Structures
1.
Amino acid sequence: MKNKKIIIIASAIFPFQSPRANRATELAKELGKQGHDVALYGVLGDYDYSAFEAKNNVKVKNIEKMTFATLNSDNSSKDTFINKILRRLLGRWLEFPNIEFMFKMTKILKKEKGTDMLISIAYPHPIHWGCALAKMRMGIAFPKLWVADCGDPYMGNPIETPAFYFKYIEKWFCRNVDYITIPIEEGRSAYYSDFRDKIKVIPQGFDFDLVRIDSREPNNEVPTFIYSGVFYQGVRDPRMFLDYLSKVPINFKFIIYTQSKDILEPYKSKLGEKLIIKDYLTREELLVELAKADFLVNFENGNTVQSPSKLIDYALAKRPIMSVSSFTIDENNIDRFLKRDYSGKLEVHNIEQYNIKNVADKFIALN
């Protein structure tokens, strides 16, 4: 197979921890290892990528200095007072501050002559819009194949509803892209029917070679369970679950790795030492900790078009998964898990589909 010149553009990449940063980074690493000429763009910060580039055969490049969309890959950016005010005033109506990405793409792509494949990664979706604008401006100089990777839908997102007029921008970008890749088949219905023939399902991918966990059964003194990820009030919401745990008479440890700490604040006094709140770990470190738990907790999104990528990590950790609704509580199932009866566990099937080698091959097969 002929090696390709591939450009991947994301808002943030390694070492930033998010599903989209992981998507861009893991894909770039695997494509580089396969011998392709890969350039990975992101808002970088001050991280030194020289060792990363040499190890993975990837060129890491910066999306220029950002004036408003200042979140960067080393997570060192500070949100200014003016940014906070403008986001409150303009956020929903102008997709601020991420709209800035739309006007950065043309300059990037004009520098990358002879590109065989462009992979733009959203969230945020203005990266896709900027690529559509670049295609309009560049004509035949635009990359030969453009794939827009969408972790979540935009207009069809059940969690956040954009202003109605953004549908015209979404349809414009969809008309111009060659393929739209989404992580799960159920997400197809969240996109306009006119463009569903462009959709290809390619799940989130991880390097299975980096998985180093102890596969022995844990020996915890009390039931110990873990959740890792973000919370959304009213959607991926832990409060009903925590309210029920507050009434449970037995001892346990619930460890949460998150940056969404405000929603947990009222439960520190209710649960005391039973609730342990920690900052995020690197993915490799997290897998080791997940494997030490008796079971893992998944808070459902409450819709069928989105699926948490953390379920892949949970499956790799080989621990039972308790899936919890934000709207109703299955007390019997919770009680069974606390007694180490996992008969009601969530199954994650065909784990090999998430191997980054297979995921990268699916991208390369697009033509």
2.
Amino acid sequence: MLTNRDIAELTAFRRALHRAPEVSRQEQETARSIAAALTADQVVAGLGGHGVAAVYNGAEPGPTVMFRAELDALPIAELSDAPHRSAIPGKGHLCGHDGHMTILIGLSRLLSRQRPAKGRVVLMFQPAEEDGSGAAAVIADPRWPALRPDWAFSLHNEPGNALGHAHLRMGPVNCASQGLKIRLTGKTAHASQPETGTSPAPALAALIPALTALGQGGALQPGFRLVTVTHARLGEPAFGIAPGEAELWVTLRTLEDAAMAALRAEAMALAHAHSPDLTATFETHDDFAASVNHPEAVAHMTAALDALHIPHSPGEIWRASEDFGRFGATPTRSAMLFLGAGNAPALHNPDYDFPDDLTPIGAHLFHRIARDLLGPR
């Protein structure tokens, strides 16, 4: 069990992380702080960018069990009077990743005092979760195959759910999503002679409702699709130039990975159809796989929740995406739960702050899962 001293030190550690947020792919100092706080049999740094993995070996052969947290903060200015508020202008830990990291540091303390009886535990501090690039980068790292887990577990805090109440369900838990940037190129002209150029304005105006109609949301069930226009730009900010170029950014969202390719192809075909006299080019960004909970991993999480008397219910599927999904690729069995943060501001709000009372709950939950799968030494 974590002692009162542990909890006080972990609270101070979390608030120090909160004061020094770093955004995706820039988490160098955060990673250093994490590595310095670990006592493990092996620490792998620079994984997939700034990722850190800590390994705790058992005495006997057995499965590898991974627990994951995220390193990155958000490019959002924090609005808070808390003494530990962000000291970095325009950046803040407004999704609770500072708390998720601290939960794993608490778990590391428990594991350092008693290693598993068999197999090994890997604590994965993943970079670049917020832009969807981190898990793929970790998996592409040549050191990943030696760390690949048989089981993978994670949690995310959930404002609006009672403090410490867990939501855990089998099957899909987070949608797949992808950002699609559409660039339309024609030819500029003098504003007094627009007919001498080729303007993308009519195509842009037609595309916005046409793309939105491809996916209008609705119930989160097989076939769910949502297309959200997030940004549009037309020409130069000048009165004397008829535009020759435009950009449209849309976020594509589906419940299943398999549906994403079809939705993207339809969106690109629409762009071509609405701009026959223009050149249409495309870029994809923020590519998130769907997160799907494996029934066996859910069973282990449920057993640990029950053993610790943590209340839980299935909860709802999240429309939002989570970069944990890629870690659940076969043969890894994975599951993620959502741990209630109480009546707190919503995630990504400028006044959000992770509740420190969740740290011991999360650390003891993960420790129980590890003990159930690997036993104490």
